[in-house]
Each structure stands twice: as structure tokens, then as C-alpha cells.
Design brief:
By secondary structure, the chain is mainly α. Helix content is about 65%, strand content about 0%. The protein is built from 9 helices and no strands. Helix 1 runs antiparallel to helix 2 and helix 1 crosses helix 4. The radius of gyration is 21 Å and the shape is globular.
């Protein structure tokens, strides 16, 4: 004879400690995405300043990346996760795919271009191009260098209109969509080298006030 079901009894999603940890991790990931969506909307509505937004967004993106590593195969992609749990958070989805705060992606309000910033961004370009020439192809090799480069770009007024910056952001989105061990194809690598060299030349022409004529 079957045991009667009590409607007052709590329904458990798990029967073991490992399953409990799994669902707890998934719930945390869910919460991070929701929090990130609220943050994005607050920034767009000017409810918070850029100074408040940037570190909060960076922290949430870092937490998201950590949680994705913990859930592993249970979450093949953020799109699958959000579809599975019927999440409607487009602002968070976009931010996760870009991988950097909106202050880095879109504009530069950090102040005047200084010699220090130029030197640091130049070094970021050189480091990234050297890595590509040394045949670094895996996401976990390229992503940190490219993220640093894109962040450096954001310091310069007018950089949002530079073609090279938009290309670098596009490559950042591509790398964000890959697993850590995945590698760019030979064709992708050649295109990336071309785009970085183009961006490097445009960077100095723009600082010098010259109009970029490269298509």
C-alpha cells in the first residue's frame, strides 16, 4: 500500500548532498543573472552612476564565470540555462555575452588621454599581437589579453566611433562564447591578427588627429 502524500510536506528537488549542492549552485547562477539584469536597467535609467555601475558589473560578471565553471555540463550555455528556466532578462544576456561593463563597451568618460594611458594601451596591443604570433589560439590564453585591451580602449574619448574598437569587442564576444580549452581556427586567427593590426594603426592615427581611411 502506497504512502499517502501530504500536501503540507515540502517538495524536495534532491535526495543526496551532491544533488542539493547542484541545485543550490544553479539557484545562485539564476540569482546572479537576475541581479545583473537589474543593474543594467538601473544604469540605463541613470538610477546609478558609472562609478557605482562599473565595479558592481565587473563583480557580477566575475561571479557568473565562477558559477558557470562550478555547474559544468549542467549548463552548456547561458542561452540554454535561461530558456530552461524561462528567464526573460535580455539586458543580462547581452552583458554576459559581451563580457565587460557597458562603460567599457560603449563609451569613454574616464577623462583626457594621457601619456600613461597611451603607453598602457600600446603595451596591451603589443602583448596581444605577440601572443597571436606565438600561435596562442585557446580562449583561456587570448581572452585575458583581449579584455585588457578593450578596457584600455574605453579610456579614450571618441574611441566608441573607432572601427578597430568595434572589431575588438566583436572578437571578445566570440571568445566569450567559447569554452576555455577551445581554440580559434587558422582562418579565424589570421583574421584576428589582421583586425588587431588594423586597430593598432587606427589607434595612433586617431590620437594624432588623422582620419582613418582603411575600410
Amino acid at each position: 500500500m502506497s504512502t499517502p502524500i501530504s500536501l503540507d510536506e515540502e517538495v524536495r528537488l534532491y535526495t543526496t548532498n551532491s544533488e542539493r549542492e547542484k541545485y543550490s549552485t544553479l539557484a545562485t547562477l539564476f540569482g546572479i543573472i537576475v541581479a545583473l539584469d537589474y543593474l543594467e536597467r538601473a544604469y540605463v535609467r541613470d538610477s546609478i552612476t558609472a562609478a557605482e555601475y562599473s565595479p558592481a558589473c565587473t563583480r557580477l560578471l566575475s561571479q557568473y564565470k565562477t558559477m558557470v565553471k562550478l555547474v559544468g555540463a549542467d549548463v552548456p550555455s547561458v542561452d540554454d540555462f535561461m530558456k530552461r528556466y524561462r528567464m526573460d532578462n535580455p539586458a543580462a544576456l547581452h552583458r554576459i555575452k559581451v563580457g565587460v561593463p557597458a562603460t567599457v563597451e560603449h563609451s569613454s568618460e574616464a577623462g583626457p588621454e594621457t601619456g600613461k594611458w597611451i603607453a598602457e594601451t600600446t603595451q596591451s596591443f603589443i602583448t596581444f599581437m605577440d601572443g597571436l604570433r606565438l600561435r596562442m589560439r585557446a580562449k583561456d590564453q587570448l581572452h585575458p589579453m583581449l579584455q585588457e585591451l578593450v578596457t584600455g580602449y574605453a579610456r579614450f574619448k571618441g574611441s566608441k566611433d573607432w572601427e578597430g574598437r568595434s572589431r575588438m569587442v566583436s572578437w571578445l564576444i566570440t571568445l566569450n562564447g567559447m569554452k576555455a580549452s577551445e581554440e580559434l581556427t587558422e582562418e579565424q586567427s589570421r583574421q584576428l591578427i589582421f583586425d588587431v593590426e588594423h586597430a593598432y594603426a587606427e589607434f595612433f592615427r586617431s590620437l594624432g588627429g588623422e582620419k582613418d581611411t582603411v575600410s
